[in-house]
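ESCALATION

Customer reports they have been waiting on this structure for their group meeting. Please prioritize. Original submission:
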Amino acid sequence: MAMTASRRRVGFFFNHAAIIGGGEISFIDLADTIRGYGVTPVVFVPGRGEVYERLSARGMRPHRFFLPRIRWYTLPLLPLATASIVWALMRHGVTILHANGARCMLLAGAAALFCRIPVVWHVRVMGREAALDRLRSRLAKVIIANSRAVAQTLQPITDVDAAVRVVHNGIDYREFAATPPIDLYREFSLPNIPVVLAVGRLCACKGLHVLIEACGILKGVGPAFTCLIIGQDALYEREYGRRLREMPVRSGLDNVVFGSWRNDVPSIMKSAAVLALPSDSESFGRVVIEAWACGLPVVATESGGPAEIIDEGETGLFVPVNAPQPLALKIALLLTDRKLHDRLAANGLLRVKDFSLDAHARNIAAVYQELMEHVTRAYKDDGQVKKRGTA
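Update from on-call: job pushed to the front of the queue and completed.
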């Protein structure tokens, strides 16, 4: 298989057919934008779903591939799945494989190794599976982490520190800025008071139970507001989602409202007063830069990705992890101190320009270039060694 071409054909492998979180959206945006940087994306998805539809809407032709769950009872299926990926890589002339997720990294990475195609593993989560991640790291030539916090979790499982590259996510902030607001009060039947917004999957790591506790602390003693939580149950934490919805009922809170997953989050952000991100484990915090692009001030836990992209008191406010009282106080501060609110919003609009989608795609394309130069040198060195051995 040719190792160079005027436009590199990069196989983008998605771990999910549905939009599970910001990772899928970021990877779709990357596949779309990187076409302007000498790359032809060849996109692969494990089934029909919203990922498939969004890629198609942007003029890309998704290819379906077989991606079984990694369970003991699916082990007989794994060689078949890997072989089908080998065939797809050869058929579509892929020269670099870019895997977005853990499960597809195992199978697609093994297939790429067979085809002698270099692999990029994109890691967007903090949690590690020591044994499997060590295997994934050995299949990859380069590991891209979406924050320094994620990169730190990778150090124990990779033998080559230089193989890890930190590339922050990007968004089309101009599109966010141009999005019109919606009438939240009519859309969600809310009272005409400020809205504190939270956006994300309903899973324990997002800390939304802490936000509801903070709402209880402020109820009746702080400024009037409605807390609007937008998101769907996490795939493996539906019980948490159920308990989360029961919390306001049990506590007698009428200022907490749940909305399901929406595709118009920028419009919702444009109409809210504060974004709360109480996660105890946030790998990057895409929702932070989205809020900045919408002129929405942010209060977030000082951990993970948000801790490295937010400047305290300048582009957002920090609270400790799992601390409802400080969270309540910071929310109240942003709702009552208009000068602080507006300053954070204005600074966020400036800061988000550092996280443009074009810069993100350009940085990823630079990783591809570096990777291919390394592979080319390795092939030349290998050839020279063989010549000397036969001389």
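Sent to customer with the following note: The radius of gyration is 23 Å.
Escalation resolved.
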